[in-house]
Amino acid sequence: MKAENVQSNTSAPYIAGSRFGKFHNEQSTLLTVRLLDDAKKIHTVNDLKDYVVGYREALTISDSSRQAMASMVRTILKVATGLDAKLCEYHKVKTPAAGQKVVKAKMDKGAKGIDSLAKALRIPSAGKAEGDGEGSEPTANDASDNARKWWKACIELGHSDKYGLTNSDIQVFIENLYMEMTGKDK
Known about the structure:
By secondary structure, this protein is mainly alpha-helical. Helices cover 73% and strands 0% of the residues.
């Protein structure tokens, strides 16, 4: 076996994975561009709610992932449509066009996918947002307290049994959510 064949055979999966990663990034960018374009057609809080519900229901991923993706899309749209007072105040957005400029500027600065764009638009240490009655995404500081409150409510109300989950399942979910939100290990 020649040395060049060994190197090309062992690097082929890496190169293929790298190409797929680049393709994924391109698709993520296309999704955010499409979302920004769709924002121009959303004029009311109800339009925004319906859009997010339609998006969430069309996804073919796990329920918790659908909820997370819908939350990120909602955050982006709240800024891009100018329909959330708190986010708009934070980003100094007075019109939908100004909101779309803010979103585009974040994209130009490297927030290409839905996840990174939503993170770039969140208010650090945000409380309850106005607009559609749903809060802005929790920050790392809120994660631990909110997770404990949710955990206690689930146990008290029997939610874990209602949805066929064990307490361990919920605990693992909370720990993973905490790690995701804070970037910390357990």
